[in-house]
Amino acid sequence: MGGRIVGRMDSEIGYSLADRMVRAPRHAAEVRNPKGCALALEMLADGCGTSEIVKATGLTAGILARLRYDHSEAISVRREKAADDAEHMAERYRAILEEKANMLLDDPDLLKKVNPRDLAVTYEIFRSKASSLRGEATAVVEHRKGVSLEDAKKALEAAQKRIQGESIDV
After folding, report:
1. pLDDT for 41-60, tens place per residue?
2. CB within 10 Å: which end of the chain, N or C, has fewer?
């Protein structure tokens, strides 16, 4: 993440940072280190971890926690925009993939060259995504019979009674 350009900062994050710089005391991180804070906010919005951001910016984990809190609305807006952009790109690639699939169907020789595993993986990804969007299960959870918490409590109580019954008062 070290190759970021702060000048291309998201407008919501930029406005939030500028607002804090105007209203914050002189010792606030946004005033003392606006570039580092801008980078940290961008990285927070991108979902980067604290240690990665500390390493890239030199800010402390405490300052990051405050930045995350003080600029939470701007970070949320930025993440929502990123999700919308990703959704748009996914739809574009879905259309391209559909076009490629039609090309494969129209050319049997080309279809013979495609690895069946690639087709199976692509199929499973789309099937799983469709199930997820419909709210259907995308995984099977296996429930195994075992000792319940109540059974374990009863076994412990029985063991304690046996121990008490075997002990001799002196």
Report:
1. 999 988 899 999 999 999 99
2. C
Helix, strand or coil, per DSSP, at residue 10: coil
- DSSP SS3 for 8: helix
pTM of the model: 0.55
Q: Measure the CA dihedral 33/34/37/43, to 10°.
A: -130
Q: Which two tokens stand for residue 60?
A: 């402390």
Rounded Cα distance, 79 and 44, in Å = 9
CA distance 159 to 106: 73
Q: What percent of the chain has pLDDT over 90?
A: 31
Q: How far is the C-alpha of 61 from the C-alpha of 25, rounded, in Å?
A: 20
> Which alpha helices (DSSP H) does the chain contain, by range?
11-23, 29-32, 34-45, 50-57, 61-70, 72-106, 108-113, 116-133, 149-166
